[in-house]
């Protein structure tokens, strides 16, 4: 993605956040926008500890509690998505930016002979999953808004 396109995306998500905060009556703080921008500059999944360390390295003075509270706001606003990949970390949830991302699924690859230490997370889209979703909607008379599908394993030798 080129710099101009990235800048437009950042402006868009900041406006989404501004509107959300206004609708909910939450304070419109600069820390929230800084955290959001850092998240949208990431190219991978992250957890709160990762984000906190990144913010500290960049000399942002933000507490871990502020990050946790802000993450909850971003989740509710639809700006990020939460995952439970089963990783063994202090904070067991992972997150990813979601505003511009289409629905996708995940394959979690663990390191061999480890206690669920993640080697790699592969994102994928398979059109057959959309067909399954539509079959379930028809069978149960529902509209499915979103789903999550995780496969877990190790690489073959």
TrEMBL record:
SUPFAM superfamilies noted in UniProt: Winged helix' DNA-binding domain
Compartment(s) where it occurs, according to its Swiss-Prot or TrEMBL record: Cytoplasm
Keyword tags: Cytoplasm, DNA-binding, Metal-binding, Repressor, Transcription, Transcription regulation, Zinc
Domain of life: Bacteria
Keyword Cell membrane: no
InterPro entries per UniProt: FUR, Fur_C, WH-like_DNA-bd_sf, WH_DNA-bd_sf
Record-stated family: Belongs to the Fur family.
Protein name according to UniProt: Ferric uptake regulation protein
Species for this entry: Kaistella solincola
